[in-house]
Specification:
Layout lengths: L9 H137 L2 H17 L1
Length: 166
């Protein structure tokens, strides 16, 4: 059990203490300031990051509020556009109804005029046909009357007397 690592001797212990002191001195002189500087820089970076995160959080809150306002305005604009579109649609429908009614009235009036014209035309044709038939009947009656010579002479004399009186 005389292991020098487990039970060091006094000389080994002194040399280990001197070596430790030199290493501790070198670390204190050169390493420790660099380690502290790195820790301070890291601490500063963490603090800066936390500040920026807080700033970003505040900006996000403002952006959320701003976005909600924009969304509300967009909804209002959409509602206004829909209202105007409905009004325009109603107006177009009403104009189309009025125009259709006007055209229908015009067509009805035109049809009435055509019916009246056709009625007058049919009456005129009927009168002409009746006149032609009357003339034909009168012609046939006169021929029948004039076929007998003594009757024809008497009719002519009678008509001449009537003309002289007028």
């Amino acid at each position: 059990m005389n292991n020098p690592l487990i039970n060091p001797g006094l000389g080994t212990f002194v040399w280990m203490l001197v070596a430790f002191g030199i290493v501790a001195f070198i670390l204190m002189k050169f390493g420790w300031p660099m380690i502290l500087k790195s820790l301070k820089e890291r601490e500063q970076a963490i603090n800066d990051s936390l500040g920026e995160a807080a700033k970003a959080r505040e900006e996000m809150k403002h952006l959320v509020v701003h976005n909600e306002e924009l969304l509300r305005q967009a909804k209002q604009e959409r509602d206004e556009m829909l209202r105007r579109a409905r009004q325009a649609s109603d107006q177009i429908v009403e104009e189309a109804r009025a125009k259709a009614k006007s055209e229908a009235d015009h067509i009805v009036e035109s049809a009435r005029e055509n019916i009246q014209y056709e009625k007058l035309k049919a009456m005129t044709e009927l009168k002409n046909e009746i006149a032609n038939l009357s003339i034909e009947i009168a012609e046939k009656l006169i021929r029948a009357e004039l076929s007998d010579k003594p009757k024809a002479d008497a009719l002519i004399a009678k008509e001449l007397e009537l003309m002289k009186l007028n």
